[in-house]
Structures are given as C-alpha cells and as structure tokens.
Write a structure and sequence with these properties.
Elements: H1 5-15, E1 21-26, E2 29-34, E3 37-43, E4 46-50, H2 56-60, E5 65-67, E6 78-81, H3 89-104
Antiparallel strand pairs: 1-2, 2-3, 3-4, 4-6, 5-6
Helix pairs in contact: 1-3
C-alpha cells in the first residue's frame, strides 16, 4: 500500500532530527517514533496519531478523526485523521504535538 509521501515529508520537517526521533515503515506506511515509541504515522492518505486511551474520546470529536481499526479490532488510544483535515500546517502541528507528547511520556524502548 502506498502512502502520502508529501504528508510524511511535512511530518519529517516538523519533527526534525535528533536522538529521540526515528522513522520506520509499518502498517504499509511510515511511522514516526519518539525514543522507540510510535507517536504518529502515515497510512494511505491519512495520519494516525497515538493519543492515549484517556484522550481518545476527545480526539474523536475533532474534525476528520475516526477510530483506528485496521483489523476489525479498534486500537485503543489511537485515532486516524483524514489527510484532508491536516492540510493546513497548524492542524497538522496540533496533531503531531499531541501524539509526540503522549509517546514522550512513555518509557524509552
């Protein structure tokens, strides 16, 4: 499955480089990790964001967000955000900041 390389590049630019940032190919797309914990990714044209179980309901109320369900079993603490909902840099930055903050609070892998 191909993924939106333009969206992935925007994420790379926002996250920058450093010892805490890494990228892997997962789910047929690109995953961005904070100290080994996945924070955000790109699958197809969409952004996936790790928000944590407690923030899922609030995240799902935001424009373009839906449950992350690739296998018929929703992944708790994750949401998918339609690529069209992160067309503006500010909207993308908000989601990236949220995913990164959650992953940064986890023990390094």
């Amino acid at each position: 499955m191909a993924y939106d390389e333009g969206l992935a590049e925007r994420i790379r630019e926002r996250l920058g480089t450093g010892p805490d940032v890494s990228e892997k190919h997962m789910f047929g797309g690109a995953a961005f990790l904070c100290r080994g914990n996945m924070a955000v990714g790109v699958v197809g044209d969409d952004l996936i964001v790790r928000v944590g179980p407690e923030a899922t309901e609030e995240a799902l109320a935001r424009p373009g967000a839906r449950v992350f369900d690739m296998t018929g079993r929703p992944m708790r603490g994750w949401v998918v955000v339609a690529g069209t909902a992160v067309g503006e840099d500010e909207a993308l930055a908000d989601w990236l900041d949220e995913g990164w903050a959650f992953a940064a609070g986890l023990p390094p892998k």
